[in-house]
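[INFO] parsing input record for tRNA (guanine-N(1)-)-methyltransferase
[DEBUG] input buffer:
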Amino acid sequence: MRLDIISIFPEYFAPLDVSLIGKARERGTLDVRVHQLRDWAHDVHKTVDDTPYGGGPGMVMKPEVWGEAIDAVIGDGTPRMIVPTPSGRPFTQELAQELAEEPWLLFACGRYEGIDSRVVAEYATRLRVDEVGIGDYVLAGGEVAVLVMVEAIGRLLPGVLGNAQSAVDDSFAPGSMRNLVEGPVYTKPPVWRGHEVPAVLLSGHHGKIARWRRDEALRRTVANRPELAAALDVDALDKHDRKLLEELSFRVGPEDVAN
Ligand code: 6GU
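[DEBUG] output buffer:
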């Protein structure tokens, strides 16, 4: 997969040299190219922003600089373009999976109040363009969001994870224990500072271990992600699951209307 990133802070992407993603780059599974947007600004100050039409706070990134940068980076190619912004569609495991199947991605990182909207309008006539956000909070710029997305996408590429099952078991992976987060994990020693590893995990009884793991996943989902638990498919739950949810006084389904 080829990955181009345009930003006024290329230094933000140093972490892509390490760990799984760094190894994938060394092997050639990932071809990451980070570009300095200011290379396409022509005035002495390398200006990339200007005041917003209509007034208001902050600055907006200029379309001409972005246009030249994107044209130079893509040539006559047609990458899928991602514009990180808190107002974008949510980045989910499903979108990560979809993007992992693309041969070429281009990330256009905005700072300040964002990029002049005509840039997306222009490239949407030629490329598939998505504005994407990573959660309901506001970052100072798209760079960290792109690191998040690249890591989520990169680990799904063939051969990037040592153990292919790791991605299959992910909390939000399609078809896993869908809509359940993962439960707790333990390693040696069996007792640490008086805390014991749950005995069932040492029992060697695979059926009981699987059941226990599912129970713990359900408990944690109810505690930490009640909106996911509420959306569980009742028909996909067995008697044991239902009993556990009953014990937790948790009702699957939409919240009752106030009465
Ligand atoms: Cl993609 N960018 C910024 N600046 N803030 C965000 C975001 C992106 N996603 C969530 N918050």
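[INFO] The chain has two domains: 2-161, 163-258.
[INFO] shutting down worker
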